[in-house]
Each structure stands twice: as C-alpha cells, then as structure tokens.
Amino acid sequence: MDKLFTEVQFLKGVGPKRSQQLRKLEIETVFDLLWNVPRAYFNRNKVDKIATLSNGAVTNIRARVVNAANNRTRRGFQIFKAMLADDSGMIPAVWFNQPYLAQQLKVGQEVFVSGKVKNTLGANEVNVTDYEVIDDESVLSIVPIYSLTDGLNQKAMRKIVEYALNNYLPYYFEMLEADIKNRYDLCDIQFAFQNIHFPANGEAYLQSRRRLAFEELFLFKLSLALEKENSDSCSSFIVHRPQTDLVARVIEGLPFALTPAQQKVVDEILADMGAPLAMNRLLQGDVGSGKTVVAALAMAQAVASGYQAALMAPTEILAEQHFASINRFFAPTSIVTALLTGSTAPAERKMVLEAAANGEIDILIGTHALIQDEVFLKKLGLAVIDEQHRFGVKQRGNLSGKGQKPDILVMTATPIPRTLALTLYGNLNVSVIAELPPGRRLVKTRFIPRSSRNQAYRFIHAEIKKGRQAYVVCPLVEESEKQDLMAAITLFEELQNELYPDLRVGLLHGRMKADEKKLIMASFKNGHIDVLVATTIVEVGVDVRSASVIIIEHAERFGLSQLHQLRGRVGRGDVQSYCFLVGDPKTDDAARRLQAMEKTCDGFELANEDLSIRGPGDFWGVKQHGLNDMKVANLLRDQKIIGWASEAVLEYRLETKQAKQTNDYIYRKFKKSPGIARN
Ligand code: ADP
Ligand code: MG
Questions:
Q1: Which CATH number is 96's domain given?
Q2: Do 373 and 464 fall within a single domain?
Q3: Which residues form ligand 1's pocket by a CB distance below 6 Å?
Q4: Which of 21, 112, 252, 478 could crosslink 152 through cysteines, CB 3.0-4.6 Å?
Q5: Ligand 1 center to residue 265 CA distance, Å?
C-alpha cells in the first residue's frame, strides 16, 4: 500500500472528528492534503501602515485590537466590527456574518488582517477577507491561509499539513526525468509541495506554483492520452463500410444544399466512421449552424453499413423535433426510425423496445429514456448525443454501452475556446461547422431596463402584424421554483388579457403534461400561436423559422451560454430578427454579460468572454471533465504550461514500475482511471 494514500485520520493529531472536518474539504488521504494548496498567504514582512491606506486598496496590516463588538445592520446582516490600531493610526475592520468572532478576537490582541479598504461616509474601513491572531510561536514570515470548515482553524490546519510534509513528502513519486525538468525550468516535486505550503520566500513560491501547475496538467493530459491509447488498441471496434448510396440519396432529397462547412464535417465524420478505430468525435457548431442534418447523414451511413444508430437529446421537445426533421430527411429512403421518450405510451414503448432489440428499427431517437436498462439495441454502430453539455459523462457512456464500442458523435452548440477544447478533449477529435447557412442575418440584440420593457412588447406587436411570431422567455431555472412558475403564468395572463387581447398567446412550461406541451409546440410551429410565453424549456434546439423576436425577461439571471442559446431560437430563417434582454443587472458580471450579448452574435466570441468573466472553474460543462479538480493550474493564465505539459506527455515513456503510481495519482486526483497497468 502506498504510504501517500494513508488516510488522514491516522496522522498524528487527527482523530475521527478532525478527519470528518477534513472530509468536508474533500481531503481523505495524505495525497489530498498535499494537493490542498493554500488559498492565499500572509506575508508578515509586507504590511501597510494604517495611515497610508486609501479607498479600494487591497491591504495587509498588523495591528492591535482596541475594541470589538457585534452589530446588526438595518437589513438584518450580522457584522462584527473591531477598531484596529498601529503606530500610524486607527481603522475600523468589518467582518460579515461571523458573530462567533466575538469569542475569538479580544481587546489587546495583536492581529494580521488582510482585506479591501472601503470608504463609506467619508471614513475608511477594512472589509476583512482573512485575519490571524499573532502569538509568539508564529516565526515564519510567509504563512499559508487554507480554506476551512466549521471547527477547523488555520493553526490546526497548518499543523496537520506540516506533519504530513515532514513525514510523508519523501513518498511522493517524482515523475519527471531530469532533462524535462531542466528544459522547462521546473523544480523537484518535493521542493514544490514544501514551498507551496510554507514558502521560504517569494521566489520559492513561484517555482513551486509553476511545478505543481505543470504536474496537474501533465497528469490530466496523460490520462487523456492513456484513455485514447486504450480505446485505439481495443480490437472490437466497428468499421462502417456502406453497401449502398443511402447517404447520397438523403443529400439529394434535402430541401437545401449543404454548406461547404457542413460538407467538410460530414466528410470528416464519414472518414472516421470508415476507419478501423472507434470514432470519438465532437461536433461543434454555433446555434443554428445545422448540426442535425449532419447527424442524420452519419446515421444513414451507419444504417447503410448494416448497423443501428441512436440519437439522444436532452428534452422531449427536442427529441420530437429531431424525430420529425430526421423523418423528413429520410423520406426518400426506407430507413426505419422510432421515438422513445419518458411519455411514450406503454404499449408503444413495448413495441419499440422489441423492434430495437431484434434490429427492425434502424434509428432510435429519444431522451434519457434511451439509456434505461430495458433498452437493448441489437447492433448499435453509432451513438449520437445532441447538446452534450446537458448530459453527464456517465449518461453519455451509458448510451454507447448499448452497443459493442460503437462510434460516438457528440454535438454541442456551446463553443469551447480552442485551447480549452484541446485541454478538455485531448482524446476527442473535433469537427467545427464554422459558418451558418446562407441568408441568415445577425439577430439585433438590445438591452432594455425593466422600467422600459413596454417598448419591447410594443415592438412585438408590430412584428406580429407583419406575420411573424415571438417568444417571451421567463427564467425558471429549476423546474421546482414555484414563484418563477407563477411569474410565467402571470405574465401569460397579463399579455393575453391586457397587452395583446387581439393576439393568440400561448404558454409552455416544464410542469405541463407531455401531451399539452406537444400540442402547444405544434400550434406555435403551425402559426396558430403568435406569442409563446415559455420557460427555459425552449432553450435548446427548438426550431421555428418564422419566429423573429424573443424577449428574455430577467435576462440578468441567465448565464451567457444560456442567453446565446435562447437568442438562437430566432434568426433561423431569413428574416431580420430581434432579441430584447429585459432586466436590471445588479452585479458587474451581469452587466458585462448583457453588453457582450449586444456586441456579438458569435458563439465562439461569447464563449471566450464567458471564460474571462467567470473563469474556467464555472465554465459550462467543465465540471464534468475533472477540470474542477485543478488546484493550482489556471486554464486561462497557464496556457504556456498547458503547451509544455502536452509536449512532455508525448515523449513520456511509462515503465511498468511507474505506471501503477501514475495511474493511482490520476485516479486520486481526477477520480477517473485511464485503465493502464492492468497486467
Ligand atoms: P443546430 O446546429 O442549432 O442544431 P439545426 O440543425 O436545428 O441547427 O438547423 C437549423 C435550421 O437550419 C433548421 O431549420 C435546418 O433545417 C436549417 N438548415 C440546416 N442546414 C441548412 C443549409 N445548408 N441551408 C439552409 N438551411 C439549413
Ligand atoms: Mg440542434
């Protein structure tokens, strides 16, 4: 057993209670403890004088507590206020919602405090982010600040880490050869862990950070490379060698010509499917770029080769829409399709399951219902997952698990910046539809404060008189948010009864029965509804070409990708379309999102903007890829290191002895096993 994976409860000074607290921080073993790097540091050599502080400054001060007390603000927040003094002056320090500080901070104590200086009503105060009571044992000049949990304080945490470093660090295995370390100027792994926790000085900290960022990215990249190697070397993959001109016939029958961009990705996909390797391909294309037809052609290829194909979509509305358009695409052929969703009637469901199992159905389209245990496909050769970011890794895996290593095509309209895509999907091939079908016009987008929202509603009225249709979207992020649901219903009534008595207004939300939803969607599609008030269930994929306006209420509550997806519901035909973002942004980030939407319709640009507003930790879909487990590396700032790690992985030779360790480290860090070293 590797000493590094000793459970923390067996460390000196850590009993069952402490180990519970550590578990809350996802620290279970010594390995986790080492990787639990400080969130910040106190540099005791670098303190500011209170008299020199100015508004907005981020500061560290060393001062004595002159008085301290809990207060309650008018809006009911608990604040703890202490007057701090050094030899230059005094300043009040404020802690929010930490009433227990009254027991911990006492008059007369000396403290380090860091935080942001704020000038309120003409006087400075410090909003404290971190603090520490100074006692005689603090001798180090740079001390770590860790994320904590109830009952665990900085001092205890530091002791535990120190013990782990002193007793277990030698067991951490050095993966890098000397020449790699020299080439990228990387320090030893032991030095790195020691100095990320207790930096000897600023330079040592920077060295450590660089090495550990490299280490993380290297392990992650290595896991991708190993996964790929593993799947390439698997002998039971499917080769799609079509016996007929089925694909050509489908293309001929389309009501439009494929764009060059679509043709290109179709070629890439078909070549991949014909190769003696398992396809694992990501198809990226902005909202409205025409991914569905590409998927249909790939599925036709599978059928022509004697296999079945499956297409999974995240909502019933979308699955039904795909079913309808794919049937239209396949009209010139005798391909047999079927739809399976949560609301498929039992009798029909039974028939579909049977026909899928005995191979009578060529193409099965549906929702999560496809990955239930009872679903069996006789010879699944291609699994397509639409709007892949809506599914978890496991669900995607479950669909491909319905066959013997089928080819896999995942589609997304959430464009991921190239560098991030390479980091995330190093083991996937990527195809991009880089242009929209001809005749599309950019959707004119405007932000409207709530006080002026009637402007937007008047505008809709005028558009509809021209024969167009409109969406009004209300936020209902979780289908269980009752108040939001009420808001959607109220808005629907307000529109129908007061604003638009002369128009046909419809309502669509997730709590409605499947039949009702189907009916409403169909009426909207056929033009029997002019204005559709909907929750975000229309977010992905819905395709109604004569809809030319969308109003998004409370736009400040949506993320950028979601706004972009919603806007993608209009502008799908060739008439000029409009998007109104109604809201009152309360944070800088929200305001930036709305500005970005006004500025561009390009999903790739928006994705970059999103990444810079939110950081990769929160970026859509990223959670599913283990990138949240990056403790040191920053995917935006460490691009150079990402490049180095990729290079280094290419020349990395695993010797059997190292293979197990590497595998273990990947497993502990990213909770996934690339499956090497089984022998
Ligand atoms: P998305 O990529 O967002 O899934 P869809 O596949 O729903 O886009 O396509 C959007 C619309 O564009 C559909 O109505 C589709 O029929 C149409 N479309 C797709 N390809 C073309 C093309 N080459 N020329 C014209 N219209 C197209
Ligand atoms: Mg789509």
A1: 2.40.50.140
A2: no
A3: 256, 258-259, 262, 285, 287-293, 413, 437, 541, 543, 545, 572
A4: 21
A5: 14
Domain stop point among 571, 595, 614: 614
For residue 202, the CA-to-ligand 2 centroid distance in Å is 50
Same domain, 406 and 477: no
Nearest in space to 337 (alpha carbons), one of 371, 302, 361: 361
Whether 655 is covered by a domain: the verdict is: no
Asked if 547 and 593 sit in the same domain, the reply is yes
Confidence of residue 70 (pLDDT cuts 50, 70, 90): confident
pLDDT per residue as tens digits for the range 651-671: 887 665 577 778 888 888 876
- How far apart CA 495 and CA 461 sit, in angstroms, is 11
Cα 674 to Cα 668: distance, rounded to the nearest angstrom:
12
- Answer yes or no: do 464 and 375 share one domain: no
472: in domain = yes
Rg for the chain, CA atoms, rounded: 29
Report CA(479)–ligand 2 centroid distance (Å): 22
Residue 256 and residue 574: Cα distance in Å, rounded? Answer: 13
Please determine, for residue 481, whether its predicted confidence score (pLDDT) is greater than 70.
Answer: no
Ligand nearest to the CA of 570: 1
The span from the CA of 666 to the CA of 219, in Å, is 6
Mean pLDDT of the 628-632 span = 73
Over residues 543-557, the pLDDT tens digits come to: 888 899 999 999 998
Q: Are residues 503 and 409 in the same domain?
A: no
Domain with residue 485: its CATH number is: 3.40.50.300
pLDDT at 617 (0 to 100): 47
pLDDT band with cut points at 50, 70 and 90 for residue 72: confident
**Choice between 425 and 70, residue whose per-residue pLDDT is larger:** 70
Q: Provide the 8-state DSSP code for 497.
A: I
Query: Are 514 and 481 found together in one domain?
Result: yes
Residues 421 and 450 in one domain: no
Residues 429, 516 within the same domain:
no
Highest mean pLDDT among 72-76, 262-266, 471-475, 582-586: 262-266
Tell me the two tokens of residue 248. Answer: 């050509």
The three-state secondary structure class of 464 is helix
Phi-psi domain of 527 (left: phi exceeds 0; alpha: psi -120 through 50; beta: other)? left
Write the CB contacts of 1 (distance below 8 Å, at least 6 apart in sequence).
Answer: none
Which of these three, 433, 464, 486, is where a domain ends? Answer: 433
- Residue 27: both structure tokens together: 């620290």
Reported as a pLDDT band with limits 50, 70 and 90, residue 679 is: very low
Nearest CA residue ID for atom 14, ligand 1: 543
Q: What is the pLDDT of residue 413?
A: 79
Best residue for ligand 1 mutational test, from 251, 262, 321, 543 (most atoms within 8 Å of Cβ): 543
Cα distances (Å, whole numbers) of residue 401 to 354, 442, 512: 18, 40, 32
150 belongs to a structural domain: no
Distance 307 CA to ligand 2 centre (A): 24
Query: Which range among 356-370, 420-434, 554-568, 637-651 shows the weakest confidence by mean pLDDT?
Result: 420-434
Number of domain units in the chain: 3
Residue 622: is its pLDDT beyond 50? no
Segments forming the whole domain that contains residue 556: 444-614
Which residues surround the ion ligand 2 when the cut-off is CB under 5 Å?
A: 541
Helix (H) or strand (E) holding 102, with range, is: helix 101-104
Residue 488 belongs to a domain: yes
